[in-house]
Every structure is written in structure tokens, then in C-alpha cells.
């Protein structure tokens, strides 16, 4: 049986390879037609951009802006070849989009031969109607975006940046690629009714799935609309979401009509009774007949008879029939009460059962008298136990996460990020004038993306202690840990105080000192200082929160000493700590050797401060803050 299956697989692979070669040969034969279609699309797009395209796209971008904001919006090229290469790139994309349908028309017959495409017969008029409808829907979606959505969207981006004190100097590459992606998204989104109808008609996705999961679709559309739109304003999000919901409803109506029409056309009166399935001559059936035949037609066959029929099909070159026959025969359950008789299971069944027994990962563990749950699934069961404990608190955790993220994002979007920038610039040394330092947005949504990322970081930082606190009782019960929730709460409070205190110190002293040094060094060389918003604010974040995390290193060392880790152990292991930090810096931190030292040296300095503090508190290790380990009750057994 295995040899026959292997031969059938080999023949199928050879058929696929031959089909690919035939498609390539046909493509070479029609290469002139494909090349002309590609060149036509490329030249039209390139010439349109060269003559009127850029002016049209700029007008669409600025049409919804006030005159004051429009004067501050600029489009810049970062390299001498940005405009030309961008026109070539867009021309290539348009050319491929024009040539792709011609290529697919050649490839679809081969896909049907390989049973990789549904065998749905369509007339030329139906194909032409689908093509016209698809083009019309795409144009409708693009027109909606350019006439209504884009002016509103770019006005929000620009006004948000200007209100925060940023200069909207858009890179022509980022701006054009953003426009191109949004154009494709809304054009394809308008194809939703047609796509749903095709999927339902070909039964790739049943119509009942679309009809029963409409609530999930509405939620998904709302999420996509909030991501694409980016604005927290419900009105702007509704401008994106409502048309998609209407298109989904229209798709349900059209798909239901198409599916009903197909079922009516296929419905035939069946007045004659069915015959005996066991009377079917399986050897005379073709591949489609074998796949459609009832299971009873194969249950009375012996394994030798199936092998004989499959070998005959292979000799005739019909490997698809042989594969289908073996697949249908393998679907039949073999047991002691099967129609074959009371004989023992076949060799194939015994091999499967033997392989399952030999590959059972718990066999050796059980033979040694150990619990397989502890040996193999210990970590899995621990995680599952903790997650099951957190399930009762999930509403509270998720609620805090959403509230914090929405609050921070709304505050940043409505002027908070500008307030942070102005407050930080006031903290710079007097020799650095704020007007000498400008923060720009090269991408239209760059400020919005930073606000989302920062809100996500803050919400995660606020929620993570809650997750650990609520999971600690489960960890104590599962891993026999001794630290109680009250002690753990003290740890959380101490680390939080260290993080907040260090962050305040970093924001007030370290971050202004670092940025003032960088700006002064740049200005002294006669260079205009224009920082991208993401680079500028992430630098502030790292030099602020990074100092807070460094402050937690000595705090953590004191807490560990109270938990039972001796001072002499920390002091004697400084070499291992140094090597480990340098290894982590080399693997995790990008930017080469310099960034590795920038990451590692401050942590080593904080580790040294912690050793100094512990040396004073413990009299150089003669009296540790704790005399025994407090984490594990049965530590003496370890």
C-alpha cells in the first residue's frame, strides 16, 4: 500500500512540474502580449505622474486643510533620486497590475486540471460582467477615498502635528507610498460584495458562514477602520467603517441571490430509488466517481482487491484515480466487526498502532514510575493553571489596560504631546535656544503611530504588575513558593518607587543634558537640527525610563538580599554578571559594538552602586538582611 501511495505521489509531483513547465512555455509564447500590457501600464503611470500626477495628489492631500496649516505642509525629497525612482516603482506596480489578468487567464485552465481551482463553468458574458463589475467597484472605492476620506484624514494628521508644535515636512517617498497603500486598500475593500459572491458561489467559503458571522465581521471592520483612520474621533472612524458595513450587507444580499440561483439550477427531481452501493464496479469508475461513491462501495473490498485496482490505474497512467482510491479506502475504519470478517487487522493497521505505541512520549516516563504531567507537561500545566486563575480577573485587567491606553492616547492626541515637548525644551540649558531644534514628521501618520506605541507601552507597564499580583497566589500553590501576596506587594511598591524616582531624575537632568550635548555639537558644526518625532521622543523615553530601570537595579539587589541571596554571592559573581550582560548586549541590542557598550556599561554601573549600598547595609556581608532563603520551603532538598 505504501509503495503504491509513493508511486502515486511521485506521479502527481511530476504532473505538477510538467504543468509548471507548460505554463512557462505558454507564457514565453505569449510574452509579447504580456510585455506590451506591462509597458502600456508602466508608461501611462510614469507619464501621468511626470505631468500632472504629483500636483493632483498634493491637491487631494491639502484640499481639506485650512490656509494656515497648508502653508506649513511641505513635501521634501531626502535623496536626489527619490522622485524618479518613485515614479518608476509606481509604474512597475501599475504595469504588473495590468499584465496580471492576462497571465492568470493562461494559468487558470492548468489550475483546473490540477484540481486547484473550482470547476465552475462561466460563459464569456459572465466573465465580462464580473470584470466590468470588479473594475466599477474598485473605481467607486478609490473615488470615495479621494473625494471624501483623504481630505479629512490628512487634515487631521497635519493639524495634529501643527498643534503639537511639529513641522509636517512629509518625505515624498513615505507620503506617496502611504497614499498608494490606502488607495489599494479602499479599492479592494469596495470589491467586498463581489468577493463574497464568488467565494459563496464556488463554495470556498459557505454562504452560511458570512450570514452567521456578521457580528464578527462588524467588529473586524470597526478594528480595521480604527487602525486605517487613526483618529480617536468617532465621526472620522465612522466615515471608514459605515461604508464597509454597508458593502458587507450588500455582499450578503448578492451572495444569497447567487447561491439560491445556483441551487435552483442544480435541483433535479430524483424519483428512482437508489441501487445497492456494494454493486458498484469500483474499477470502472473514474476519479470523480470514486470521490463521489458512498463508503459502502469500498467496505466490502479486501486490501488485495484495492491494491489490484490501484495498480491497474497506475499502469494506465491514471495516478489521480489510484490516489483517490487509496484515500477513500484509508477512510474506512478497520475493527473486529468490519464487513471484511473477523480476521485480525491488516498490516497497515498494526503498523500504525505499533508506531503510536513506540512514539508515545509518556511510555518511558510511566515505566520509570514518574508522573508524565510533571516530566513533560509541567510548564504547560503551570501556565494553564495560572491563566485559569487569571480568567476571573480578566475583565478587570483588560478594562484597566483599555482605559489607560485610551486615556493616554487621547491626551497625547489632543495636545499632550505638544505640552511634553514644550516642557522639555524649557528644561534645556540656556545656551540652547528652542527655535534651533525642530521636530518634523516625515510620514503623515508618524505622530499618530508614536502616540499609539507610547500608549501601548504605558498601558502594558500599568497592567503588568496587576497580572503578576493576581497570578502570585496560583504560583504559590503550584510551585510551593513562600512569599506571600503582602510581601510581593511590598516588592512591587519598592520597584515602582525606584522606577518613578529614577524616571523623574532622568527627565529633569539626564535627558536634557544628553540632548543639549547632541544639539550643541551639531549646531557648532553649522548643521540644521531637525529630528524625526519618533527618534526625538524615543530618545527622551529611553533617557527617562532607562534611568528609572537603572535605579531599580540597586533596589532589586537589596530585595534579593532580604530574600536570602547573600551579599558575598553577588560580590563574588561580578565577572559572570559582566560577561552575561555583554553577551545579552551583543545579541539583543542592534547597532554594533558602540551600542553594546552604551547598553551594558550603565547597567554595570548600577550593579556597582547596588554592591556599594549592600556593603554599607550588611557591613561588607557580615550581617545579611536575611539569614535564610525565603522563596522555597523545601530548599534544603535542592
From TrEMBL:
InterPro entries: TatC. It is a multi-pass membrane protein. Residues 345-363 have a biased composition (Basic and acidic residues). GO terms for cellular component: TAT protein transport complex. It is found in: Cell membrane; Membrane. Keywords: Cell membrane, Membrane, Protein transport, Translocation, Transmembrane, Transmembrane helix, Transport. Residues 336-363 are annotated as: Disordered. The keyword Transmembrane applies. The keyword Transcription does not apply. The chain crosses the membrane at residues 31-50, 84-105, 125-146, 178-202, 214-231, 237-259, 397-417, 454-475, 487-515, 535-559, 579-598, 604-621. GO terms for biological process: protein transport by the Tat complex. GO terms for molecular function: protein transmembrane transporter activity. Its main location: membrane. Forms a complex with TatA. Part of the twin-arginine translocation (Tat) system that transports large folded proteins containing a characteristic twin-arginine motif in their signal peptide across membranes. Belongs to the TatC family. This is Sec-independent protein translocase protein TatC.
Amino acid at each position: 500500500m505504501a509503495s503504491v501511495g509513493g508511486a502515486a505521489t511521485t506521479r502527481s509531483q511530476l504532473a505538477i512540474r510538467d504543468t509548471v513547465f507548460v505554463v512557462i512555455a505558454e507564457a514565453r509564447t505569449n510574452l509579447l502580449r504580456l510585455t506590451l500590457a506591462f509597458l502600456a501600464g508602466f508608461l501611462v503611470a510614469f507619464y501621468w505622474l511626470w505631468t500632472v500626477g504629483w500636483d493632483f495628489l498634493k491637491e487631494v492631500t491639502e484640499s481639506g486643510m485650512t490656509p494656515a496649516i497648508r502653508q506649513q505642509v511641505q513635501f521634501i525629497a531626502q535623496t536626489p533620486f527619490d522622485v524618479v525612482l518613485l515614479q518608476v516603482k509606481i509604474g512597475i506596480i501599475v504595469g504588473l497590475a495590468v499584465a496580471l489578468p492576462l497571465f492568470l487567464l493562461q494559468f487558470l485552465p492548468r489550475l483546473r486540471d490540477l484540481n486547484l481551482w473550482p470547476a465552475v463553468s462561466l460563459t464569456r458574458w459572465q466573465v465580462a460582467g464580473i470584470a466590468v463589475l470588479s473594475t466599477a467597484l474598485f473605481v467607486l472605492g478609490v473615488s470615495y477615498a479621494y473625494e471624501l476620506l483623504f481630505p479629512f484624514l490628512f487634515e487631521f494628521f497635519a493639524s495634529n502635528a501643527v498643534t503639537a508644535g511639529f513641522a509636517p515636512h512629509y518625505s515624498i517617498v513615505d507620503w506617496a507610498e502611504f497614499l498608494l497603500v490606502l488607495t489599494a486598500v479602499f479599492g479592494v475593500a469596495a470589491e467586498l460584495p463581489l468577493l463574497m459572491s464568488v467565494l459563496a458561489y464556488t463554495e470556498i467559503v459557505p454562504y452560511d458562514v458570512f450570514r452567521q458571522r456578521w457580528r464578527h465581521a462588524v467588529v473586524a471592520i470597526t478594528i480595521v477602520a480604527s487602525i486605517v483612520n487613526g483618529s480617536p474621533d468617532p465621526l472620522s472612524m465612522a466615515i471608514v467603517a459605515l461604508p464597509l458595513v454597508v458593502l458587507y450587507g450588500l455582499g450578503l444580499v448578492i451572495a444569497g441571490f447567487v447561491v439560491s440561483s445556483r441551487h435552483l439550477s442544480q435541483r433535479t427531481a430524483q424519483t428512482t430509488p437508489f441501487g445497492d452501493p456494494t454493486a458498484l464496479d469500483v474499477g470502472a469508475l473514474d476519479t470523480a466517481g470514486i470521490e463521489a461513491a458512498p463508503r459502502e462501495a469500498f467496505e466490502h473490498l479486501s486490501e488485495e482487491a484495492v491494491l489490484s485496482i490501484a495498480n491497474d490505474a497506475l499502469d494506465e497512467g491514471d495516478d489521480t484515480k489510484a490516489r483517490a482510491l487509496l484515500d477513500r479506502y484509508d477512510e474506512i475504519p478497520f475493527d473486529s466487526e468490519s464487513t471484511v470478517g473477523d480476521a485480525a487487522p491488516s498490516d497497515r493497521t498494526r503498523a500504525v498502532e505499533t508506531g503510536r505505541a513506540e512514539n508515545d512520549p509518556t511510555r518511558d516516563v510511566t515505566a520509570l514510575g514518574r508522573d508524565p504531567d510533571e516530566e513533560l507537561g509541567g510548564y504547560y500545566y503551570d501556565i494553564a493553571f495560572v491563566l485559569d486563575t487569571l480568567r476571573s480577573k480578566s475583565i478587570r485587567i483588560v478594562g484597566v489596560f483599555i482605559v489607560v491606553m485610551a486615556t493616554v492616547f487621547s491626551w497625547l492626541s489632543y495636545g499632550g504631546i505638544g505640552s511634553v515637548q514644550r516642557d522639555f525644551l524649557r528644561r534645556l540649558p540656556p545656551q540652547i535656544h528652542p527655535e534651533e531644534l525642530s521636530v518634523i514628521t516625515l510620514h503623515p501618520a508618524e505622530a499618530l503611530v508614536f502616540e499609539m506605541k507610547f500608549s501601548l507601552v504605558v498601558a502594558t507597564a500599568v497592567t503588568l504588575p496587576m497580572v503578576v499580583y493576581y497570578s502570585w497566589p496560583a504560583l504559590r500553590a503550584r510551585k510551593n513558593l513562600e512569599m506571600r501576596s503582602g510581601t510581593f506587594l511590598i516588592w512591587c511598591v519598592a520597584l515602582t518607587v525606584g522606577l518613578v524616582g529614577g524616571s523623574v531624575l532622568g527627565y529633569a537632568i539626564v535627558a536634557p543634558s544628553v540632548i543639549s550635548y547632541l544639539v550643541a555639537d551639531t549646531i557648532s558644526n553649522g548643521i540644521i537640527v531637525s529630528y524625526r518625532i519618533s527618534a526625538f521622543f524615543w530618545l527622551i523615553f529611553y533617557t527617562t525610563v532607562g534611568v528609572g530601570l537603572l535605579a531599580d537595579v540597586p533596589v532589586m539587589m537589596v530585595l534579593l538580599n532580604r530574600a536570602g541571596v547573600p551579599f558575598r554571592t553577588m560580590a563574588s559573581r561580578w565577572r559572570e554578571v559582566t560577561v552575561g550582560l555583554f553577551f545579552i548586549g551583543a545579541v539583543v541590542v542592534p547597532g554594533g559594538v558602540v551600542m553594546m557598550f552604551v547598553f551594558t556599561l550603565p547597567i554595570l554601573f548600577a550593579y556597582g552602586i547596588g554592591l556599594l549600598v549592600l556593603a554599607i547595609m550588611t557591613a561588607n556581608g557580615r550581617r545579611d538582611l536575611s539569614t535564610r532563603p525565603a522563596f522555597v520551603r523545601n530548599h534544603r532538598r535542592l
